[in-house]
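=== RUN LOG ===
request id: a7f3
mode: sequence -> structure
chains: 1
length: 290
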Amino acid sequence: MVALVALAPDVVLGTAGVSVTVARFDLLDAHTGGNKGFKLREHLHVAQAGGYTRLLTFGGAWSNHLRAVAAAGARAGLATVGIVRGEPTEPLNPSLQFCQTQGMELVWWDRTTYRRKHEPELLGNLQRQYGPAWVIPEGGHSPEGVRGAMDMYIPGFDAIFCACGTGSTLAGLIAASESPVRLYGVATLKGGDFLYREVGTALGWVGATETPGRWQILTDYHFGGYGRSRPELDAFIHSFQQRSGIPLEPVYTGKLFFALSDQLQKGLLPPGSRVLVLHTGGVFAAPCRD
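=== RESULT ===
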C-alpha cells in the first residue's frame, strides 16, 4: 500500500486552507517503484503469457525506465535488451552500470537512428537480431502502460498533480478518475504542448474520452529542457528536502513540486481544496545544467 504523507503548509507555500498530501509511490520498491512498476505490470504479464523470454526497450543514458525494465526482467527470469540513445561512453554512468548488473544487454544508437525507433524496418531488424522479444516502448508509453497507471489513482481528493514525460501516467489517472476531480501534469521537457496530443491518444487506447477541460498540462517548468536544472530549481529542491524530509531530483519530482508550489501561490485552487501529489521516484537521474 502506498504511504500518504501530509505536508505542512509552509513546505509548499500554498493558498491558505489548501491541504497537500504526497503519495509516496517511490517507496514501493527500490528499483521498480514510482510509476515505472505500474506501467510495466501488464507488459510482463503479456510477455510471459505469450512465451517470450526477452524484453526489449528504449531509453536515454540516465533512463529510469531502462533501470526498471532491467530489474523487472531479472526478477521475472527474462533476458533484457536496452537500446540506449546517444554515443557510448566509458565508464558507464551508475544507471547503466545497474542495468548491466541486472543482465541487460546495452545497444547504443546514435540520435538520428534513435528517432526512427518506431519504424517497422528498424523494429524488424531488432526482432531478427534479438527476437523473439516483447518490445516495450520508451517510458512504457503504450496501452499496457496506461492501464497499469490507472491503478495509481487514489480517490478522495479535489486535484491531483503528477510529472509528465510521455503522458502515460496522466492518461491513466484521467481514465480512472471521475469529475469533478481536476488533474495537472507538469511537463518535464521543453515544448511540452505536444503532450496534449499524446495524452489524448493514450486515453483512446483504454476507451476513455476526455477533453482537456478537466485536465491541464503545465509546460512552463522545464528549466531549459529534459534533464536540465538551474540554480532556482536546485535551491528549491534543497529547501523542500530540508523542510519535508522527502527526497526530490531535478528531472521529474523537483519540477513537479516547484510547479505545485508556484501554482498554489498564484491561487490555482480555492481554499479548502484537497491536493494529492504523486511522488513517482526518479531519484536515480542526474541533471545536466545549461
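=== NOTES ===
Residues 34-49 form the longest helix (16 residues).
Residues 80 and 103 are 7 Å apart (CA to CA).
=== END ===
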